[in-house]
Amino acid sequence: MVSHELTATPLMSRVWQRHTLAQKLSRLSLWLLIGVAVLLSLSSISVIWEFLWDAPEQMADMGSRMWPLDFPYYPATVHAALLETFHIATLGTLFSMVLALPLAILAAHNITPHAGLNLFAKTMLVASRSVNSLVWALLFVAVFGPGPLAGTVAIACRSVGFVGKLLGEALEEVPRGSIEALKAAGATQGSQILYGYWPAVKPAFWSIMLLRWDINVRESSVLGLVGAGGLGMAMNAAIDLFQWDRVAVILLTIFAVVVIGEVVITYFRRKLI
Is the C-alpha dihedral spanning 48, 52, 53, 59 positive or negative? Predict the structure, then answer.
């Protein structure tokens, strides 16, 4: 009679780890790359450490010069510059809408099924977005001279890419059901856009335009630093003359405009959308 001896094999102990060895190495490599990039950036921008350590004292000195604020300066100069800033932002946004609508239609492949026209429209939109508003303002100040006209055209050229890209993407996401029904009824291309695409993208369109106008108000506030009109010109003049109490009034005005603009945009967005 053969007896079999039962031997109990102990269970292998398992150690729980959040990340595998490969994941740990990849994370370590990523952090090393970030550290190298930061060190290279610091070495290339030539930080003057003496000025950096002295910055808190200089900020405190500037704050003391800003107080008390020169509030009589607002009705004398700042109010007119503020209205000019609103005009630049509003006209620039309207001009960008006129230019962005056809480019958005050309960029949407479901409306314009032509690769060449799609590429042309998207290239124009990318070119508009790739240049900063201040750079556009510098170019148009050289063309039109200093003043609000250069700022208005700069805002329009910068906004075309933003509005056209988002509106083109909204057009491409329109459901095909209503469009196919209009095609089956014999509707023309214009009727399809007017009665099929427009009702679907109208909420997105107003949201994009309101958001862009809000951005343009902020950007047009600083375009005057390069001579393109608005609050920036008043602030640049006050800084050049070391009138920090007036600079504080202008900064407070810009802050108030941003807050009020946010409230107004939120209100109209709820009403329109």
Answer: positive
CA angle 39, 41, 46 (to 5 degrees): 100
* Residues 31 and 113 both lie in one domain: no
Let me know whether 139 and 253 are in one domain: yes
* pLDDT tens, residue by residue, 114-146: 888 888 988 888 888 888 888 888 888 888 888
**14 lies in some domain:** no
Q: pTM (2 decimals)?
A: 0.74
Of 240, 241, 239, 220, the C-alpha closest to 231 is 220
Q: What is the mean pLDDT of residues 179-206?
A: 78
- From the number of C-beta atoms within 10 Å of its C-beta (0-12, 13-18, 19+), residue 138 rates as middle
What is each CA distance from 201 to 177, 189, 193, 204, 215, in whole angstroms?
A: 15, 16, 10, 5, 21
18 Ramachandran zone, left/alpha/beta (phi>0; psi -120 to 50) = alpha
CATH code, domain carrying 163: 1.10.3720.10
Q: Smallest Cα–Cα separation from 161: which of 196, 132, 198?
A: 132
28 and 151 co-located in one domain: no
At 3, list the tokens. 């007896």
Rounded CA-CA distance 40/43 in Å is 5
Residue 40 lies in domain: 21-57
